[in-house]
Specification:
Elements (H helix, E strand, L loop, with lengths): L6 E13 L12 E13 L10 H9 L4 E5 L6 E5 L2 E6 L3 E6 L3 E4 L6 H15 L4 E9 L2 E8 L2 E6 L4 E6 L4
Parallel strand pairs: 1-3, 3-7
Antiparallel strand pairs: 1-2, 2-8, 4-5, 5-6, 8-9, 9-10, 10-11
Length: 173
């Protein structure tokens, strides 16, 4: 039997998108945009095609976010209603807007932050491909980023913005 080595690959992708943070009293509660940057780092075995994973597959994760309003559909304070080709998005006491569906991406998360995007992307990549480690770093500005690591053994979330590190072992709460 031939030895199997783990190989790490990485790629950086950027996209422009708007968001808002519901549960904050800072200016980030308003709709605003960023030039987001995502560093994908994954480890696995080299497949028959000579690759751990095609870089273009990773690029697809950010292409769907580009030039969209990212809305956290799991946040109970965000009301989303379909109106034909549009969505009516309201956050009571904050704002309401009607926007074309194609200009919005509904994300299955509670808030759209660097931390939640890193975790969401790490989970998606890990579930979609046979990899041993997925590490995603998301920058919302040149100085602010969050990193999430998903492994066969558990999940890490590292947020230098707030200095917290969270680790969970699969199957345990």
């Amino acid at each position: 039997m031939e030895d199997q080595f783990e190989t790490k690959i990485a790629t950086v992708e950027e996209f422009d998108a708007a968001h808002f943070i519901v549960q904050t009293d800072t200016k980030c509660r308003n709709i605003h945009g960023h030039r987001w940057k995502v560093l994908f780092e994954v480890s696995g075995t080299v497949k028959e095609d000579g690759m751990v994973l095609d870089f273009l597959k990773l690029k697809e994760y950010v292409q769907v976010l580009d030039h969209r309003l990212m809305v956290p559909e799991k946040n109970k304070m965000v009301n989303i209603e379909e109106e034909g080709e549009n969505l009516r998005i309201t956050v009571p006491g904050r704002f309401g807007l009607i926007i074309q569906k194609e200009a919005v991406i509904l994300l299955p998360i509670e808030e759209v932050t660097a931390e939640s995007l890193a975790n969401y992307l790490a989970e998606c990549v890990f579930e979609d491909f046979d990899l041993s480690v997925v590490k995603i770093t998301v920058w919302e500005s040149p100085k602010s980023y969050a990193t999430a690591v998903r492994t066969r053994y558990g999940t890490f979330m590292i947020s230098p913005n707030w200095g917290k590190v969270v680790f969970t072992v699969q199957g345990e709460q």
